[in-house]
Amino acid sequence: MAQTQFLQSSPLSCATAIDSRHSRIVKRTCQVFAVPESLQNQWAGLKTFVVVERQGERDRQPFHECQFYICSQHLEAQQLLADTQGHWGIENRLHWVKDVTFSEDFPLRRGGNAPVNWAILHTFLITSARFFGFRTIPQAQRALSNQLQKVFSLFV
After folding, report:
1. What does the alpha-carbon distance between residue 63 and residue 140 come to, in Å, rounded to a whole number?
2. CA neighbours within 13 Å on the CB side: how many for 86?
3. For 34, phi and psi rounded to 5 degrees?
4. Which residues pair with 57 in a beta bridge?
5. Are strands 48-58 and 13-21 parallel, antiparallel or unpaired?
6. E-strand spans in 10-138?
7. pLDDT of residue 1
8. Which pLDDT tens digit goes with each residue over 52-97?
9. Distance between terminal CA atoms of the chain?
10. Tens digit of pLDDT for each residue in 121-148?
11. Within the chain, which residue ranges are assigned CATH 2.20.130.10?
12. Residues 14, 29 contacting (CB under 8 angstroms)
């Protein structure tokens, strides 16, 4: 249904952003469409369909992707575009760091509560590193490894 709206009707609002970082250029376009009244009656709370298109070049290879979302609010495309980009900030600032720096995707400690306990410890270490202003997690690990008093000062 969202794809039909995208192809057959005019958007309520539209926004575009161009981003050139990390050896890639990405153009993001967000369009917000009204949900037909017949569908609103079938699905309580459904207000809009959102379409986010991403196209550009990664490592000199062109790409194009299109995601469809449903929304229970009437928001402007500019806000929704910022929200979808902000979602990836969590992935890039926390989950990627945990996967790459601490190899959480392939844990050595399995069984029982060990994975959860290590995940909590890793999150604490990342938060501590950022609190103390280190640029990278390995840099913080090296600098704080013999500074336990400084690390424990966060608990007081």
Report:
1. 36
2. 6
3. -75, 145
4. 25, 62
5. unpaired
6. 13-21, 24-34, 48-58, 61-71
7. 58
8. 999 998 778 899 999 999 999 889 999 998 888 776 666 666 777 8
9. 54
10. 888 888 888 888 998 888 988 888 888 8
11. 1-89
12. yes
CA distance linking residue 7 with residue 20, whole number of Å: 28
Both tokens of 102, joined, read 């601490």
* Residue labelled with tokens 């959102």: 50
Domain spanning 1-89: CATH superfamily: CAC2371-like domains (2.20.130.10)
**Token pair of 64 as six digits:** 């194009």
Going by DSSP bridges, is the β-strand pair 13-21/24-34 parallel, antiparallel, or unpaired?
antiparallel
CA distance linking residue 93 with residue 10, whole number of Å: 36
- Site of tokens 């600032």: 93
Please give the structure tokens belonging to residue 57. 């070049």
Distance CA 156, CA 80 (A): 39
Sign of the dihedral through C-alpha 91, 95, 101, 104? negative
Dihedral Cα 55, 56, 57, 61, nearest 10 deg: 50
User: DSSP secondary structure string, 67-89?
Assistant: EEEEESS---HHHHHHHHHHHHH
Identify the CA nearest to 64 among candidates 76, 80, 51. Answer: 51
